[in-house]
Amino acid sequence: MVQELTTENFKESISGDLIVVDFWAEWCGPCKMMGPVFEELSSEYEGKLKFAKLDTQAHPSPAQESAVQGIPCLIVFKNGEEVGRIVGFAPKPMLKQKIDAVLAKV
After folding, report:
1. 73 is catalytic
2. Topology classification of domain 2-105
3. Which of 19, 34, 43, 48 could form a disulfide bond with 72, CB atoms 3.0-4.6 angstroms apart?
């Protein structure tokens, strides 16, 4: 399950265990391609990693605070701290490999 984040719940949502946040926008083509892949992976990592999305157009502050310069941008947070970042669209196998590499480090 993918949680929808807002400016109001962002800090609280990233303050706990591992969570990967997809920074995206409605107008972004690669973001739309990433959506279904991100959804699929969320069920594969259930119990290990939480998945959330933040619409950077509707909620720009968290993206600015996280220094997001290009979207789609996936940031993995642990206890509110960034522990990994994946920028740009990637097909599912490649994205899974990148997420696993980040998880191996934490």
Report:
1. no
2. Glutaredoxin (3.40.30)
3. 34
